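Give me the fold.
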Amino acid sequence: MLVLAGALALLILLATVVLLGAAATGGARAARAADLAALAGADVARGLAPGDPCTVSEQVTRRNGAELTACHVVGADGAEVVVTVRRAVVDSAGELLEATGTSRAGPPR
């Protein structure tokens, strides 16, 4: 009986570690998508690349498997871009979770 209880506790611990690992990976991927989208948008806002900053940010976000939920061009000279993205994450039980990331890119403050 004690062995069965120990095995059950180990199984629960392993499931928790897998779930936390999936959440951490999803969060890191959302943060990466937000960072890349903000950098690409800031390049456009500064005139280093053609296009609209938020349109380019959305394209980069999609290429990284995420969805752009907010994009703002800010700053005194309009060269700063702040984006928020979300990314679907499937945990080990097959449940759909959501990870979000926010990033800012532009000239130093």
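Residues 2-105 form one domain.
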